[in-house]
Specification:
Blueprint (H helix, E strand, L loop, with lengths): L3 H14 L22 H9 L4 E6 L2 E7 L2 E3 L2 E2 H6 L7 E6 L2 E7 L2 H6 L6 E5 H6 L8 H16 L11 E3 L4 E3 L6 E2 L4 E10 L2 E6 L11 E4 L6 H13 L3 E12 L4 E10 L13 E6 H8 L15 H10 L8
Protein backbone atom coordinates (compact mmCIF):
# COMPACT_ATOMS: atom_id res chain seq x y z
CA UNK A 1 0.00 0.00 0.00
CA UNK A 2 1.12 3.56 -0.68
CA UNK A 3 2.22 5.45 2.40
CA UNK A 4 -0.17 8.22 3.40
CA UNK A 5 2.68 10.60 4.17
CA UNK A 6 3.85 10.32 0.56
CA UNK A 7 0.35 10.95 -0.66
CA UNK A 8 -0.35 14.01 1.48
CA UNK A 9 1.13 16.69 -0.76
CA UNK A 10 -0.42 15.27 -3.96
CA UNK A 11 -3.82 14.80 -2.33
CA UNK A 12 -3.93 18.33 -0.94
CA UNK A 13 -3.15 19.73 -4.40
CA UNK A 14 -5.96 17.54 -5.75
CA UNK A 15 -8.42 19.49 -3.60
CA UNK A 16 -8.13 22.25 -6.18
CA UNK A 17 -8.58 19.83 -9.10
CA UNK A 18 -11.62 18.14 -7.50
CA UNK A 19 -13.52 20.75 -5.44
CA UNK A 20 -16.43 19.67 -3.28
CA UNK A 21 -19.19 18.22 -5.46
CA UNK A 22 -16.91 17.56 -8.44
CA UNK A 23 -15.14 14.19 -8.16
CA UNK A 24 -13.29 12.63 -11.07
CA UNK A 25 -15.05 11.25 -14.16
CA UNK A 26 -18.17 13.45 -13.93
CA UNK A 27 -17.39 16.36 -16.29
CA UNK A 28 -18.04 15.18 -19.85
CA UNK A 29 -16.57 17.37 -22.59
CA UNK A 30 -17.84 15.19 -25.45
CA UNK A 31 -20.98 15.31 -27.53
CA UNK A 32 -21.77 11.60 -27.69
CA UNK A 33 -23.36 12.14 -31.14
CA UNK A 34 -25.24 8.84 -30.95
CA UNK A 35 -26.87 9.53 -34.32
CA UNK A 36 -23.51 8.80 -35.98
CA UNK A 37 -22.99 5.37 -34.45
CA UNK A 38 -24.95 3.51 -37.12
CA UNK A 39 -23.21 5.24 -40.04
CA UNK A 40 -20.23 2.98 -40.76
CA UNK A 41 -19.16 4.99 -43.79
CA UNK A 42 -19.12 8.23 -41.82
CA UNK A 43 -17.25 6.66 -38.91
CA UNK A 44 -14.61 5.20 -41.22
CA UNK A 45 -14.11 8.58 -42.84
CA UNK A 46 -13.72 10.22 -39.42
CA UNK A 47 -11.09 7.67 -38.44
CA UNK A 48 -9.04 8.76 -41.44
CA UNK A 49 -9.46 12.45 -40.68
CA UNK A 50 -6.24 14.06 -39.32
CA UNK A 51 -8.30 16.02 -36.79
CA UNK A 52 -9.61 12.86 -35.11
CA UNK A 53 -8.17 11.85 -31.77
CA UNK A 54 -8.11 8.78 -29.51
CA UNK A 55 -7.64 7.69 -25.91
CA UNK A 56 -5.68 4.42 -25.76
CA UNK A 57 -6.13 2.15 -22.74
CA UNK A 58 -4.39 -1.02 -21.62
CA UNK A 59 -6.14 -2.79 -18.75
CA UNK A 60 -6.18 -0.21 -15.92
CA UNK A 61 -3.59 1.99 -17.60
CA UNK A 62 -3.56 4.77 -20.18
CA UNK A 63 -1.15 5.52 -23.02
CA UNK A 64 0.13 9.10 -22.75
CA UNK A 65 2.70 11.14 -24.64
CA UNK A 66 5.34 13.00 -22.66
CA UNK A 67 5.68 16.64 -23.60
CA UNK A 68 8.20 18.12 -21.22
CA UNK A 69 6.74 17.84 -17.72
CA UNK A 70 3.20 17.37 -19.07
CA UNK A 71 1.40 14.21 -20.14
CA UNK A 72 -0.91 14.32 -23.16
CA UNK A 73 -3.59 11.62 -23.21
CA UNK A 74 -5.49 12.70 -26.31
CA UNK A 75 -3.49 11.26 -29.22
CA UNK A 76 -3.85 11.44 -32.96
CA UNK A 77 -4.98 8.21 -34.63
CA UNK A 78 -1.55 8.00 -36.26
CA UNK A 79 0.23 8.34 -32.90
CA UNK A 80 -2.00 5.66 -31.40
CA UNK A 81 -1.44 3.21 -34.26
CA UNK A 82 2.34 3.74 -34.26
CA UNK A 83 2.36 2.79 -30.56
CA UNK A 84 0.58 -0.46 -31.35
CA UNK A 85 -3.04 0.36 -30.49
CA UNK A 86 -5.63 -2.05 -31.84
CA UNK A 87 -7.19 -0.86 -35.12
CA UNK A 88 -10.77 -1.49 -33.96
CA UNK A 89 -11.91 1.89 -32.66
CA UNK A 90 -14.86 2.80 -30.46
CA UNK A 91 -16.60 6.06 -31.31
CA UNK A 92 -16.85 8.09 -28.10
CA UNK A 93 -18.24 11.29 -29.59
CA UNK A 94 -17.25 14.72 -30.87
CA UNK A 95 -15.15 17.44 -29.31
CA UNK A 96 -15.31 20.80 -31.07
CA UNK A 97 -16.52 18.94 -34.16
CA UNK A 98 -13.61 16.47 -34.22
CA UNK A 99 -14.19 12.76 -33.62
CA UNK A 100 -12.78 11.13 -30.49
CA UNK A 101 -12.29 7.36 -30.33
CA UNK A 102 -11.39 4.79 -27.69
CA UNK A 103 -8.74 2.20 -28.54
CA UNK A 104 -7.25 -0.78 -26.75
CA UNK A 105 -3.63 -1.89 -26.66
CA UNK A 106 -2.31 -5.47 -26.45
CA UNK A 107 0.23 -6.53 -23.82
CA UNK A 108 3.01 -6.95 -26.37
CA UNK A 109 2.61 -3.38 -27.62
CA UNK A 110 2.60 -2.00 -24.08
CA UNK A 111 5.79 -3.90 -23.26
CA UNK A 112 7.57 -2.41 -26.28
CA UNK A 113 7.02 1.07 -24.85
CA UNK A 114 8.87 0.30 -21.61
CA UNK A 115 11.88 2.59 -21.32
CA UNK A 116 10.71 5.01 -24.01
CA UNK A 117 11.11 8.72 -23.31
CA UNK A 118 8.27 9.91 -25.54
CA UNK A 119 5.42 7.56 -24.61
CA UNK A 120 4.46 5.81 -21.40
CA UNK A 121 1.69 3.42 -20.34
CA UNK A 122 0.79 4.49 -16.81
CA UNK A 123 -1.88 3.48 -14.31
CA UNK A 124 -4.94 5.72 -14.75
CA UNK A 125 -5.96 5.97 -11.12
CA UNK A 126 -2.49 7.10 -10.05
CA UNK A 127 -2.28 9.76 -12.75
CA UNK A 128 -5.75 11.06 -11.87
CA UNK A 129 -4.95 11.21 -8.15
CA UNK A 130 -1.70 13.08 -8.81
CA UNK A 131 -3.40 15.61 -11.10
CA UNK A 132 -1.31 14.52 -14.10
CA UNK A 133 -4.39 14.52 -16.36
CA UNK A 134 -6.83 17.39 -17.05
CA UNK A 135 -9.90 16.77 -14.84
CA UNK A 136 -12.26 17.71 -17.68
CA UNK A 137 -10.90 14.83 -19.81
CA UNK A 138 -11.32 12.12 -17.18
CA UNK A 139 -14.93 11.34 -18.08
CA UNK A 140 -14.03 10.70 -21.73
CA UNK A 141 -11.07 8.59 -20.62
CA UNK A 142 -13.36 6.63 -18.30
CA UNK A 143 -15.73 6.04 -21.21
CA UNK A 144 -12.87 4.70 -23.33
CA UNK A 145 -11.62 2.45 -20.53
CA UNK A 146 -15.06 1.04 -19.74
CA UNK A 147 -15.91 0.39 -23.38
CA UNK A 148 -12.57 -1.21 -24.27
CA UNK A 149 -12.82 -3.42 -21.19
CA UNK A 150 -16.36 -4.48 -22.11
CA UNK A 151 -15.33 -5.54 -25.62
CA UNK A 152 -12.36 -7.48 -24.27
CA UNK A 153 -14.59 -9.35 -21.80
CA UNK A 154 -17.59 -9.90 -24.06
CA UNK A 155 -16.22 -11.06 -27.38
CA UNK A 156 -18.48 -14.09 -27.54
CA UNK A 157 -22.25 -14.39 -27.56
CA UNK A 158 -23.58 -15.16 -24.09
CA UNK A 159 -26.51 -16.97 -25.72
CA UNK A 160 -24.78 -19.43 -28.08
CA UNK A 161 -21.03 -18.90 -27.67
CA UNK A 162 -20.33 -17.67 -31.22
CA UNK A 163 -17.77 -14.92 -31.73
CA UNK A 164 -19.77 -11.66 -31.85
CA UNK A 165 -19.17 -8.64 -34.09
CA UNK A 166 -18.71 -4.99 -33.08
CA UNK A 167 -21.49 -2.71 -34.34
CA UNK A 168 -22.85 0.80 -33.82
CA UNK A 169 -19.44 2.38 -33.45
CA UNK A 170 -18.60 -0.06 -30.67
CA UNK A 171 -21.81 0.46 -28.68
CA UNK A 172 -23.22 -2.95 -29.54
CA UNK A 173 -22.09 -6.46 -30.42
CA UNK A 174 -24.18 -8.68 -32.71
CA UNK A 175 -24.10 -12.46 -32.87
CA UNK A 176 -23.99 -13.65 -36.51
CA UNK A 177 -25.32 -17.07 -35.53
CA UNK A 178 -28.33 -16.59 -33.23
CA UNK A 179 -28.81 -12.86 -33.97
CA UNK A 180 -28.65 -11.89 -30.29
CA UNK A 181 -27.75 -8.27 -29.56
CA UNK A 182 -25.39 -7.39 -26.72
CA UNK A 183 -24.97 -3.93 -25.18
CA UNK A 184 -22.38 -2.47 -22.78
CA UNK A 185 -23.29 -2.94 -19.15
CA UNK A 186 -22.93 -0.58 -16.21
CA UNK A 187 -23.04 -2.00 -12.68
CA UNK A 188 -24.84 0.17 -10.07
CA UNK A 189 -23.05 0.54 -6.74
CA UNK A 190 -24.39 2.37 -3.69
CA UNK A 191 -21.89 4.31 -1.59
CA UNK A 192 -23.15 6.05 1.50
CA UNK A 193 -22.33 8.38 4.35
CA UNK A 194 -24.21 7.16 7.43
CA UNK A 195 -24.56 9.65 10.29
CA UNK A 196 -25.89 9.63 13.82
CA UNK A 197 -26.11 13.16 15.14
CA UNK A 198 -22.59 14.60 14.98
CA UNK A 199 -20.94 11.26 14.21
CA UNK A 200 -20.46 9.47 10.90
CA UNK A 201 -19.70 5.84 10.16
CA UNK A 202 -16.60 4.97 8.13
CA UNK A 203 -14.87 1.68 7.42
CA UNK A 204 -11.62 0.41 6.00
CA UNK A 205 -10.75 -2.56 3.82
CA UNK A 206 -7.49 -4.48 4.07
CA UNK A 207 -6.24 -3.17 0.72
CA UNK A 208 -6.65 0.50 1.73
CA UNK A 209 -3.51 2.56 2.40
CA UNK A 210 -2.50 2.45 6.05
CA UNK A 211 -4.79 4.60 8.19
CA UNK A 212 -7.36 5.33 5.48
CA UNK A 213 -11.11 5.12 6.20
CA UNK A 214 -13.91 5.64 3.69
CA UNK A 215 -17.65 5.35 3.13
CA UNK A 216 -19.22 1.92 2.99
CA UNK A 217 -20.35 0.69 -0.43
CA UNK A 218 -21.75 -2.31 -2.27
CA UNK A 219 -23.40 -3.49 -5.47
CA UNK A 220 -27.13 -3.10 -5.99
CA UNK A 221 -28.67 -6.55 -6.35
CA UNK A 222 -31.32 -7.76 -8.81
CA UNK A 223 -34.80 -6.28 -8.24
CA UNK A 224 -33.51 -4.06 -5.42
CA UNK A 225 -34.12 -0.34 -4.97
CA UNK A 226 -31.28 2.05 -4.23
CA UNK A 227 -32.77 2.72 -0.79
CA UNK A 228 -32.97 -0.99 0.04
CA UNK A 229 -29.41 -1.53 -1.17
CA UNK A 230 -28.13 1.24 1.11
CA UNK A 231 -29.91 -0.18 4.14
CA UNK A 232 -28.87 -3.76 3.36
CA UNK A 233 -25.19 -3.03 2.74
CA UNK A 234 -24.85 -0.95 5.90
CA UNK A 235 -26.53 -3.64 7.98
CA UNK A 236 -24.49 -6.47 6.44
CA UNK A 237 -21.11 -4.77 6.77
CA UNK A 238 -21.48 -2.95 10.09
CA UNK A 239 -24.60 -4.22 11.84
CA UNK A 240 -26.03 -0.67 11.82
CA UNK A 241 -29.68 -0.16 10.94
CA UNK A 242 -30.48 3.08 9.12
CA UNK A 243 -33.30 5.10 7.61
CA UNK A 244 -33.94 8.37 5.74
CA UNK A 245 -31.87 7.41 2.70
CA UNK A 246 -31.24 10.45 0.49
CA UNK A 247 -29.65 10.63 -2.94
CA UNK A 248 -26.71 13.04 -3.45
CA UNK A 249 -24.97 12.45 -6.80
CA UNK A 250 -23.46 9.77 -9.03
CA UNK A 251 -19.93 9.12 -10.27
CA UNK A 252 -18.96 6.89 -13.21
CA UNK A 253 -16.26 4.50 -11.99
CA UNK A 254 -14.37 2.68 -14.78
CA UNK A 255 -13.22 -0.35 -12.74
CA UNK A 256 -14.33 -1.87 -14.96
CA UNK A 257 -17.67 -0.09 -15.48
CA UNK A 258 -19.66 0.91 -12.42
CA UNK A 259 -21.90 3.82 -11.52
CA UNK A 260 -21.33 4.95 -7.94
CA UNK A 261 -24.62 6.18 -6.48
CA UNK A 262 -23.78 8.52 -3.62
CA UNK A 263 -26.30 8.59 -0.78
CA UNK A 264 -26.63 9.59 2.85
CA UNK A 265 -28.60 7.88 5.59
CA UNK A 266 -29.47 8.33 9.26
CA UNK A 267 -28.45 5.61 11.67
CA UNK A 268 -31.06 4.09 13.98
CA UNK A 269 -28.51 2.09 16.00
CA UNK A 270 -24.87 2.70 16.96
CA UNK A 271 -23.48 -0.67 18.08
CA UNK A 272 -21.10 -1.80 15.34
CA UNK A 273 -20.70 -5.46 14.39
CA UNK A 274 -18.05 -5.61 11.65
CA UNK A 275 -18.31 -8.18 8.87
CA UNK A 276 -14.64 -9.20 8.79
CA UNK A 277 -15.06 -10.77 5.35
CA UNK A 278 -15.84 -7.28 3.97
CA UNK A 279 -14.11 -4.84 6.30
CA UNK A 280 -11.00 -4.74 8.45
CA UNK A 281 -12.55 -2.14 10.73
CA UNK A 282 -15.48 0.28 11.07
CA UNK A 283 -15.99 3.05 13.61
CA UNK A 284 -17.72 6.34 14.35
CA UNK A 285 -15.95 9.68 13.76
CA UNK A 286 -17.06 13.14 14.90
CA UNK A 287 -16.99 16.14 12.55
CA UNK A 288 -13.74 17.57 13.86
CA UNK A 289 -11.94 14.26 13.49
CA UNK A 290 -13.40 13.70 10.02
CA UNK A 291 -12.28 17.18 8.92
CA UNK A 292 -8.74 16.43 10.06
CA UNK A 293 -8.83 13.19 8.09
CA UNK A 294 -9.88 15.03 4.94
CA UNK A 295 -7.14 17.66 5.38
CA UNK A 296 -4.52 15.07 6.38
CA UNK A 297 -3.94 16.70 9.78
CA UNK A 298 -5.20 13.87 12.01
CA UNK A 299 -2.79 13.38 14.95
CA UNK A 300 -2.92 9.59 14.55
CA UNK A 301 -2.22 9.73 10.82
CA UNK A 302 -5.75 8.67 9.86
CA UNK A 303 -7.04 9.84 6.49
CA UNK A 304 -10.24 9.99 4.50
CA UNK A 305 -10.78 9.12 0.83
CA UNK A 306 -8.97 10.94 -1.98
CA UNK A 307 -10.74 13.98 -3.54
CA UNK A 308 -11.07 12.24 -6.91
CA UNK A 309 -13.49 9.70 -5.35
CA UNK A 310 -17.14 10.41 -4.57
CA UNK A 311 -16.61 9.14 -1.01
CA UNK A 312 -14.49 12.23 -0.27
CA UNK A 313 -17.33 14.48 -1.40
CA UNK A 314 -19.95 12.62 0.63
CA UNK A 315 -17.79 13.00 3.72
CA UNK A 316 -16.88 16.62 2.97
CA UNK A 317 -20.52 17.53 2.43
CA UNK A 318 -21.39 16.13 5.86
CA UNK A 319 -18.39 17.72 7.58
CA UNK A 320 -19.36 21.17 6.27
CA UNK A 321 -22.97 20.78 7.35
CA UNK A 322 -24.50 20.45 3.90
CA UNK A 323 -25.87 16.98 4.63
CA UNK A 324 -28.68 16.91 7.19
CA UNK A 325 -29.09 13.13 7.29
CA UNK A 326 -27.60 12.91 10.77
CA UNK A 327 -29.55 15.81 12.26
Amino acid sequence: PQDLVGLKEREMSALDAFPLGQPAFVTNILDRAAHLRGNDEKLFAMEQNPSSRAYVVHRDSLLVKREGERMRALLSIDEAMKCGANPGTIFLGLRDGAAVFGMGMPQAAAEKLVGRDDYVVSELRGMAMQGALPPDQLSAIAMAKSMVSWHQRHGYCANCGTRSVMKEGGWKRDCPACKAEHFPRTDPVVIMLVASGDKCLLGRQKQFPSGMYSCLAGFVEAAETIEDAVRREILEESGIRCTDVQYYMTQPWPYPSSLMIGCSARALTEDIVVDRAELEDARWFDRDEALKMLTRTHPDGLAGPHPFAIAHHLLGRWVHGKDRSGA
